[in-house]
Design goal:
Elements lengths: L4 E2 L10 E4 L5 E2 L9 E2 L15 E4 L3 E3 L8 E3 L17 E7 L4 E7 L8 E5 L7 E5 L5 E3 L8 E5 L12 E5 L17 E7 L5 E8 L4 E6 L3 E3 L8 E3 L39 E6 L6 E6 L5 E5 L15 H7 L3 E3 L10 E3 L2 H4 L7 E2 L5 E3 L5 E3 L3 E2 L2 H22 L2
Parallel strand pairs: 1-3, 6-7, 12-13, 13-14, 18-19
Antiparallel strand pairs: 2-5, 3-4, 5-6, 8-9, 9-10, 10-11, 11-12, 15-16, 16-17, 20-21, 21-22, 23-24, 25-28, 26-27
């Protein structure tokens, strides 16, 4: 061009392209308020030479590219290349994508309360329907614009306060919240969770084993439920004073269903040796109660009876009178076949002779885990009866002997 600037109000519509090669100027509007287009390193018309062209056509724009391959093609082969969208503080800045069926917006939402300075992806024109958010701290939120962990996935509206220090939060307003691990149905391996530390190796894992259709808890360590320092492979603790620590329940309504079948065996496969099966221990005192094999195919119940554990040892007196005061009964349990009788004692009557062998009180009640008042039935232990029966037989034997010698 002959001069440094091209000025005017219009360009003939017969021009399909305008190619600007940087000489010493650019194109500027008619006055200072109009937008300037320039290809130099300074303001248009400043006489700054630049070899990088600005390419404009009716379908494409090229910045640093004389033959743009796309509608907007920006190229810089000598250094890094950036596009900057800048707005005032507290406003929105982004790019909208629209395929006429769905609109998406990506950018910084600084106008919505609680999302300031958060990079978001919104399923709408503008922000307000955020699907993903990244905070300046690097936290990623799916379903939330205020992620409280490195990954925070939220479904629905919830007032739950996340655990401080969590690296992963899965939050749901609904009653159910799942993580679904999927793998090929024919896979022989499992999938699940693995925990490792800096010492190397897999320390613990929880996974589903496809080949045996089972959930596996593995690793060289121990599992603690209610215990931060488990002493055994499975260590369960609680501080319940009126309820149970654990529960095994067969939910089958079949009359013939077993309540609980617990298989205890050694590696040799023999569960009826003299080894211990179950051990109940008192942490405060060295008392032990055992269910163990008798070494010949049967089982027996033992409890600690060492003399070193006992005091105030005296002979039983008037055992025969105690036995005579008992009321042996025949009965059947309510709700069961009335023709199947049982023989034994009634706790309400047994307590008058053996007060320390009856648990609970007459017509006692308790609160169940749901806070409902339910009957608290009395229980009986007949273990003390054996000693009294033995003494009563000795008393009878003495009387028989005395009669025989009279």
């Amino acid at each position: 061009m002959a001069n440094d600037n091209l000025t005017g109000n219009t360009i003939s519509s017969t021009y399909n392209q305008l190619l600007i090669t940087a000489d010493t100027g650019g194109i500027t509007g008619a006055d200072a308020s109009t937008t300037q287009i320039h290809c130099g390193g300074a303001t248009a018309g400043a006489g700054n030479a630049d070899t990088t062209p600005l390419y404009l056509s009716t379908t494409r724009v090229g910045i640093g590219k004389t033959a743009p391959a796309y509608e907007l093609h920006i190229a810089d082969t000598s250094s890094s290349c950036y596009v900057k969208i800048e707005t005032v503080s507290g406003s929105e800045a982004g790019v909208i994508f629209d395929d006429q069926d769905q609109k998406w917006t990506i950018g910084v939402d600084g106008a919505t309360s609680g999302t300031a300075d958060v990079f978001v992806i919104s399923a709408a024109t503008g922000f307000g329907t955020e699907r993903l958010a990244i905070s300046p701290a690097g936290n990623v939120g799916i379903g939330t614009t205020a992620p409280a962990a490195f990954l925070h996935v939220k479904s629905g509206t919830s007032s739950i306060t996340p655990y401080t220090g969590a690296e992963l939060i899965l939050e749901a307003a609904a009653a159910e919240n799942y993580i679904n691990f999927l793998a090929s149905a024919g896979s022989s391996s499992g999938n699940g969770l693995v925990w490792s530390d800096t010492s190397g190796g897999n320390e613990a894992y929880l996974y589903y084993q496809h080949s045996i259709d089972s959930l596996v808890i593995g690793g060289a360590g121990k599992v603690g439920i209610g215990s931060a320092g488990p002493s055994y492979k499975l260590h369960v603790e609680d501080t319940q004073s009126a309820s149970f620590v654990g529960m095994f329940k067969n939910a089958s309504t079949n009359v013939g269903a077993d309540c609980l079948r617990l298989l205890i065996m050694t590696a040799a496969g023999d569960a009826t040796t003299g080894n211990k099966w179950l051990s109940c221990e008192d942490a405060a005192n060295p008392n032990e109660y055992l269910l163990r094999g008798d070494g010949s195919g049967g089982i027996e119940v033992y409890d600690s009876s060492d003399r070193r554990l006992k005091e105030n040892i005296i002979d039983i007196s008037d055992a025969l009178s105690m036995i005579n005061n008992l009321k042996p009964r025949r009965y059947n349990r309510k709700g069961f076949d009335s023709s199947k009788y049982k023989y034994g004692f009634i706790a309400d009557e047994f307590v008058s002779v053996f007060p320390n062998s009856v648990g609970g009180t007459t017509d006692g009640t308790r609160l169940d885990d749901d806070g409902n008042t339910v009957p608290d039935y009395q229980t009986i232990s007949t273990k003390n009866l054996s000693g009294v029966l033995t003494k009563a037989i000795q008393e009878l034997s003495a009387k028989v002997t005395a009669l025989e010698n009279a």
